[in-house]
Specification:
mainly alpha, elongated, about 80% helix, about 0% strand, single chain
Length: about 130
């Protein structure tokens, strides 16, 4: 596949994941009972509005190319914490699927999010020359 096609697929996956996260954030801000009950059961009842704003803000950072890496980092940290809370409370792991989509979309959009290829190549060359 061409690099442009791969980036486009990555962007589509990123948008799908972002719509899921933003939809959840909007549900929190709107006070949708199904969303707020789940958060209240996990001990976050007092922070529902703030968590909703965080969802939307992190998604906007993730979708904008200049702040993509910051948004990716914030979303990963947020969903990592959500998974930890779900494990502690014995809830279903609903944060795993959006996180996987975020990872796949980010990797296809820009592989340097996971592995700064140029730096790895330079370090490898330096190590081989010094050996």
């Amino acid at each position: 596949m061409k690099p442009k096609t791969i980036k486009t697929i990555g962007m589509v996956i990123s948008v799908i994941a972002s719509l899921m996260v933003a939809g959840s954030g909007i549900g929190m801000l709107a006070g949708v009972k199904k969303v707020t009950d789940g958060l209240a059961a996990n001990g976050a009842g007092d922070f529902i509005k703030m968590v909703g704003v965080m969802h939307i803000a992190f998604v906007l950072l993730f979708l904008y190319n200049k702040t993509f890496k910051l948004g990716f980092l914030l979303l990963c940290c947020f969903f990592g914490g959500a998974i930890a809370v779900e494990l502690v409370h014995g809830a279903k792991l609903s944060a795993v699927f959006p996180l996987v989509l975020i990872w796949v979309g980010a990797f296809l959009r820009d592989k340097s999010v996971f592995l700064p290829v140029k730096n790895v190549i330079n370090v490898t060359k330096t190590l081989t020359l010094n050996s």
